[in-house]
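Thanks for the sequence, V.! I ran YoaR-like putative peptidoglycan binding domain-containing protein right away. Repeating your input here for the record:
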Amino acid sequence: MTLYGDKHPPADDRPTVLVTAVTWPDEPEAVTPPTATGGPDNGGRRPRRVRMLVATGVTGGVLAAVAGAGAWAYAGDVPRGTSVLGTELGGRSRGAADRELRAELDRRAAALAAPLRITVGERTAEIKPADVGLGVDVVATVAAAAEADAHPVSRLVGSRTVDPVVTIDTDRLDAALRTVLGDQVRPMTMPAITYQGTTPKVVRPKPGLAFDTQRSAEAVRTGWLAGTPVTVPLVESQPATTAEELDRLVGELAKPAVAAPVTLRTDRGSVRVPPAAIAKSLRFTADKAGKLTPAVDVKRLRAALGDSLNAIEVPPKDASMTIAGGRPKVTDGRAGQQLDTATLGRDLLAVLPKSDGREVTGELKPTPPELTAEKLAGLGIKERVSTFTTRFTGGMASSRSQNIATIAKEVDGTIVLPGKTFSLNGHTGERGYAQGYRDAPVILDGKLVPGVGGGTSQFTTTLFNATYYAGLEDVEHKPHSYWFDRYPAVIESTIFWPSLDFKFRNNTDHGLLIDTSYTSSSVTVSIWSTKIYDSVKTEYGPRRNITTPKVIHLEPGPSCIPSNGINGFAQDAFRVIKKGGVVVKREKFTWRYDAEPRYVCGPKPS
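Predicted structure:
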């Protein structure tokens, strides 16, 4: 007999559990009690309690079976029926799946390590998987397997294959593929518009031929796992700006831009912007895709206009510092008025295509000084950290002495902010007659000859030593070819515009002031800041490889400067820096001096 529970109203279509009635072997046959009339109950059916027990027991058995199946299906972290590389990982914990997958990879180790045959364009080569970082990320693969379809039905009867997570070093793969590709690769020729004087010059765009990094990596991953040869697809890439668009830019902007000047009007007057200045500042820049975009480089425009901007602009003046009464004294700066560069570039670009109405209005905006008195006062410039003096002869009537005084005055009062690098050439610019320098002996091609700016090397050596004994970072310096006894050996520096420079970096957390002074026989440079070292001293090694000078006879005349000659030698100098009573830095400086010849103005005796 089949039961569907006790009672089911005809309209109730809820799902039911199909069970079969059973009897228990040691249960006595049920006796039906008489009814009120003395007869048996209708049909002799089992009592309701017995039927309830039967249904409940059977239902419990079925539910237990279902629960058991569910427990089986959900056993482990990885759903049953899940495989990777043909290896069943289903029903395992992540740790067990990890071990099983690694075992499978060990079995395939030889095949996975075999060279991979790759074709790029018309060339074929073999690449070792290890050379491009090919491998299986086991942890990531097991995680992907654990996250596979977990629907209850599919866990019971489904199966699924999870692809392994393959790693690859795309940079190393690119390098390997470029080696195979060789001269087949053809980079894009980017479009360009430049000016030769005021004439536009163009570079026409051309497509490039290369491989796509992501597509190449995917092809290599697939071929490596399958053990099949790989063909890397080559892709032709076109610059975003076409040849037709390039011609349009030339005709509509590049040519008319330099056809006539532009008038720049401001509240303080007007400035004429000539075609040459426009050509130097109008830039056509191509991005990585080859998209050409025009813009006015206002910084270049300002440089091209030069001193003409002085008629309408007032430059800001930084706060300054001097030493008065043995103490630093701050003098406040002042704000200036300068062109608003953000609007100027945009407005100028808008009128350049026009043949008339070539005018722009420039807005003068208040420009604060870069270095204010408040900022300067907070830089920690409070005490003299180092000082150095060198001496010279001839008095201030000497052209050489005058040059030393001129460069000393130019550098005096210079503030170097924390982390910034000071360049002596960059600070003074060219040192010529227009800047007040005079002819004096300089070393050129190994001998003393008259030259503008002679003597500035003595100031350079003095400044170098002041920064050296302040413990500041040496960035660039070059000792003289010959040693002069007015300078300390090795710890000295020459300078020559524009090829030889002296640079140092303020490698402290404080600002510093360069204070210079001179007399008729000496020049002194002092560094003011916050003292951070106990001492900075020099230890010398012995002179070695000493050479003696030759005697050279020169044609007499105003360009001939005689000299007595100086021995050459090599020597080491060590900068020893102490802080807190211990040596914190020991730096080695080494130089080899040539023997300066003894120059004689006159013929060699017969």
